[in-house]
User: Fold this.
Amino acid sequence: MKLKDQVAIVTGAGRNIGEEIAKLFSSEGAKIVVVDLDKGRADATTAAIKAKGGQAVSVVADVSDENSVKAMIDAAVKAFGRLDILISNVAISDNKHILDITKEEWDKVLSVTLTAPFLCGKYAAKQMIAQKSGGKIVNVGSTSGFRGRPRAIAYTAAKGGVANLTRSMAVQLSNHGIRVNAVIPNKIGSPVGKDEFDPTRPVNNVAGRTGLPIDLARAVLFLVTEDSDFIYGDMLFVDGGASIMEA
Assistant:
């Protein structure tokens, strides 16, 4: 097992990509802190992990709120005694044009999509440093953070921020033995903030198929194992080759 006895926090683990990451990590021996704002979803993922013999605990947290993030870290340590891995997966989108979006909508998207990985990364790193055992952090970005879109002005700005947040975290935390990287998906699973997954949704990529949550989960697993030990601050594109194609 690649993650035997390691403790991993996965935010937004009640559905879609986060749920798949939590389940895959558990199958590799990790103890999972299943974080979601929706208690029912968190509990469902936790129950599924336990049903297969894994160890997991549900934590309800608003990862855009500093006190809630602190409580999340405390809950992880209380449950399993330590923290080795953080996966910052939560995001929301605005799907708005710059001429139509309100400041309140802008602030909310940046708070959840950019401030949350900052807060989670900060307090997870503090715990890892206190343990003196290093750790791994993976932020979930998006191809939207690397190009303009006719919609989603706040989301594209926030995901662009996630890319450089990841690079700066990697530089600043490396001397503490903490590796920080990001994965960059494109249209994987259900759309951001929505439950419905339409496998027939049109995609334009080299792979010729819609991305699945397991595709991203496997890439995240790679970035938290010794297989990626020499990789720091990288943006691993898991987009079926969408970003290399001509628009």
About this structure: The longest strand covers residues 178-185. The mean pLDDT is 95.
